[in-house]
């Protein structure tokens, strides 16, 4: 499968953003985060792990994007479709690109409003003091009104193919979990082994792994692994956001270690049933809350509980939430997770997760849906 | 080695921050990013990979920190030393913790100034629109004047031990590079293989890998790997930020593939010499720019070139820059990288990197310093 996207795809993304900017009266967009910048430019690097340098892309209401970036990124940005690349020697505590960026914004916006992604899931990736300096030189900033988030929520065929690739990689790694998980193996070794399997099956990298284990499930799904060994009869859950060419999968698997506990098996059946109910409800035109309700009905979740799935793509989680509070309409091209959870004992849970894409004629599976009884490994 | 830190260590960090806050007249600090929150609480999770929820910790001028966090994190935060943990059901687009946070800030600050890390390397990890809502309810925000950054720059013995552990892990993985790199192997497979070796040698996870290859080096050090195969005579460089218990190493190794090019060997010798010159200059009381100058003299770098090393710890890069512009004084407990680079041909470079900690009596090596001729693998 080809890495990256055609220049035509990036131009189409820019065209759609510019049409929305015109409707909103925005003279430019200022982008500062990894996924927003990558979405319009194709600039893909793990160097964002370093917090030391800010990166900027300006999307004018007309014309091509302008990159205002540290010189260390000039070579890589020069291999994207962008032609207007302006650099400074960063880090420079005295002026870390602020005057260069301010000049470019003045030139492009000419006093007009500059939209910044400011809604849910966003942040401004630059020092607050530097943002104040830009405001002080008279740049008029405002909210982008969710333009970028709405564009990113509907995936192209080439984006969907990359997510499908990540899902297939994780699916193959999960098939091999018996190689690394058995009674007596410490959870931190299980996590390491799982990450190794993901790499062997083709992941470029593994930004996210979570999991838990216990006789009836786990007390939370965000804790890191420790030295606690797996025990016979545990339910082990592993959840991953593995990446291929910058696109995530995000699904999990549960395994019974050695023997399956009947109560865990019953919870598992409920989770599978809920996932299928969510899948059936995930039709174009349905609302996020409808899909939530279909799953909540099966697992008996109340309105106050967390979400039972979310959007997925260039980030582990992005876009809509499958919750009672979210009435986003499902559109063809949206990629979402179905993630029902069930409480098996006081403060103990099991969760299950799969990935689908919404199509004009209904949902299409991206992850290899689990079925049948709770799988037993490590015997 | 024990994971985490003693409660006494967290309390000492809070005490130092509060003393600085008092001098500055700050009623509270508001922390929103992963490393800043982890530094004072011990809250360690890979769940930050999800951008969907903001997380907040308030450090009052007196008393204990207050966590204002999504309910999904309550169980894990409850296992830290924090006792005042306030939660909301997130994501909630209508009010994502803003009113809960505003109430807590009013209660703690009582009209006084709330400091936010706002200088180099920082950002505010919450939607800009929500920050505006907090300002609108009368919270008086200001810069933290680098309090948090300065505290984090000087590591405790337990922090240094964790960085040393990460360095040892990466050192063992580099020793095994001959298992995964030889002529004909695609760079993306080399990257995967290297990450697998890091996990096998004990890394919890591998947030950062970079590298490059070519007869005389590489055109940049931030590009992702592609299908290009290694060729006989290439210089292969791999650089990693691998993590153990939340602490990074950050160093690289160069290898000749099959045979060593004499010009690459000569550049390598210069890099080793520059690294040793940097090490010798890295004495307590010296300035960051002195260490830069010691290395720049050997590799012939001008003042306009980028930095030749940086601070290291909970993030891949943090704190000072070894550059002509940075006059930070080296203090015992600072962990830094020495990272000289040399241009071997027009637009082609080789870089070398090692990690040290500044001690009262001089630098101590944390990474296993490379020496001797350019190592040859893949024969």
From TrEMBL, chains A, B:
Residues 162-357 form the Peptidase M24 domain. GO terms for molecular function: aminopeptidase activity; metalloexopeptidase activity. The keyword NAD does not apply. The keyword Protease applies. Residues 13-154 form the Creatinase N-terminal domain. InterPro entries: Creatin/AminoP/Spt16_N, Creatinase/aminopeptidase-like, Creatinase_N, Pept_M24, Pept_M24_MAP, Peptidase_M24B. It comes from the Bacteria. It holds the Pfam family Peptidase_M24. Keywords: Aminopeptidase, Hydrolase, Protease. Gene3D superfamilies: Creatinase/methionine aminopeptidase superfamily, Creatinase/prolidase N-terminal domain. This is Aminopeptidase P family protein.
């Amino acid at each position: 499968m080809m890495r990256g996207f055609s220049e035509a795809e990036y131009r189409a993304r820019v065209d759609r953003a510019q049409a929305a900017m015109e409707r909103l009266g925005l003279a430019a967009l200022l982008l500062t985060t990894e996924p927003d910048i990558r979405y319009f430019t194709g600039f893909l690097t793990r160097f964002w792990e370093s917090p030391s340098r800010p990166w900027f892309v300006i999307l004018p209401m007309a014309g091509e994007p302008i990159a205002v970036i540290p010189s260390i990124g000039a070579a890589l940005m020069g291999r994207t479709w962008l032609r207007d690349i302006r650099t400074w020697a960063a880090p420079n505590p005295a002026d870390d690109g602020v005057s260069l960026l301010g000049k470019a914004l003045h030139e492009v916006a000419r006093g007009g409003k500059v939209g910044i992604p400011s809604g849910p899931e966003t942040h401004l990736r630059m020092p607050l003091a530097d943002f104040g300096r830009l405001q002080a030189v008279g740049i008029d900033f405002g909210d982008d009104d969710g333009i970028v988030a709405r564009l990113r929520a509907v995936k192209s065929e080439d984006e969907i193919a990359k997510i499908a690739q990540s899902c297939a990689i994780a699916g193959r790694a999960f098939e091999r979990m018996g190689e690394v998980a058995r009674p007596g193996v410490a959870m931190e070794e299980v996590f390491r082994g799982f990450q190794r399997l993901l790499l062997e099956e083709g992941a470029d990298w593994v930004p996210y792994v979570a999991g838990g284990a216990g006789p009836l499930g786990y007390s939370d799904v965000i804790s890191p692994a420790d030295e606690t060994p797996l025990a016979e009869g545990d339910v082990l859950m592993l959840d991953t956001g593995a990446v291929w060419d910058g696109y995530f999968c995000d699904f999990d698997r549960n395994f019974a270690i050695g023997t399956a506990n009947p109560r865990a098996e019953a919870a598992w059946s409920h989770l599978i049933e809920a996932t299928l109910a969510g899948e059936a409800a995930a039709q174009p035109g349905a609302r996020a809350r409808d899909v939530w309700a279909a799953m909540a009905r099966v697992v008996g979740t109340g309105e106050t509980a967390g979400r039972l799935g979310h959007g997925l793509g260039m980030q582990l989680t992005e876009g809509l939430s499958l919750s009672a509070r979210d009435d986003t309409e499902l559109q063809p091209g949206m990629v979402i997770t179905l993630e029902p959870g069930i409480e098996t004992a006081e403060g103990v849970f099991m969760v299950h997760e799969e990935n689908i894409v919404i199509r004009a004629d209904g949902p299409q599976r991206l992850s290899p849906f689990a079925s049948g009884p709770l799988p037993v490994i490590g015997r």
